[in-house]
Design goal:
Blueprint lengths: L1 H12 L63 H31 L5 H28 L8 H7 L12 H29 L2 H23 L12
Bound molecules: fe (ii) ion.
Length: about 230
Amino acid sequence: MAAPAKTAALKTAAPKKAAAPAAKKAPANATAPNTGKGAGTNPAVDIQPILNQQNHAPAPTQRFGTVSQRLPIGLDEATRQSSVTMLNQLLADTITLRDMYKKHHWQVVGPTFYQLHLLFDKHYEEQAELVDAIAERIQILGGVAVAMAHDVAELSSIPRVPRDREEAPVQVSRLLDGHQRILKNCHDYAGKADESGDDGTNDLIVSQLVRTNEMQVWFVSEHVVESPLTRAA
Ligand SMILES: [Fe+2]
C-alpha cells in the first residue's frame, strides 16, 4: 500500500529540529494552589475560558436594520437597504412557516396521520433550507439577519398559531394561509429587486422561494379537497 510509504517519506523529509533546551526545573515553591488563572505551568497562557463577557459588552458589531458596504458586490446602499428589509420580512415569515410545519408534524391526528406526518417534516426541511439561503443573502448584502424567536415573532406577518393541538384540515388551512402571505410578498419583492438591479435577490426569490412554496401549496392543498374515499359520487 502506498499510504504508509508516503507518510514515512514525509517524516524523513522534515527538517531536523534543533535539540530542545533542557526543561527548566520548577522552583521548589511551584506547588501553589490552583487559583484558576494560569493553572498550567506557563504563566503566559491562561487556559480558563473568559465567561460572561456579554454582561459588559461594548457596542454590537452591527446594529439590526443597518447595512454595510463591506462586500464589493456592485450594489449601492439604497438597493442593499431595500433588499435587506424585504428579505428580513421573508425570513421572519419563512422561519414561522418552517416551525409551523414541525408543530403540525408532531401534533397531526386522524386517518391521514402517517402521510401528513411525513409530508409536514419534508416541507419543514425544505423551508429550513430556504431560511438559510435568505439569511445568508441578507449577510452578503451587508445587512443583519433576524434570527431569534422573539424577534421573528415581532416581525412575522403570519398570525400567531395557538399552542393547542388542532384538526388536520385546520392545520392545512393555516399552512396554506402562511404560504399565500409569503408568495404575495415574493411577487411584490421580486419585482422591486429586479427594478433596483439586485439580480441575486430577484433570483433567490423567484428560483427558490416562489418555486418551493408553490410546490408545497400543491401538495398540501390536495389534502383538503372533498372527494369520495371508496365509491365515485
Ligand atoms: Fe419527527
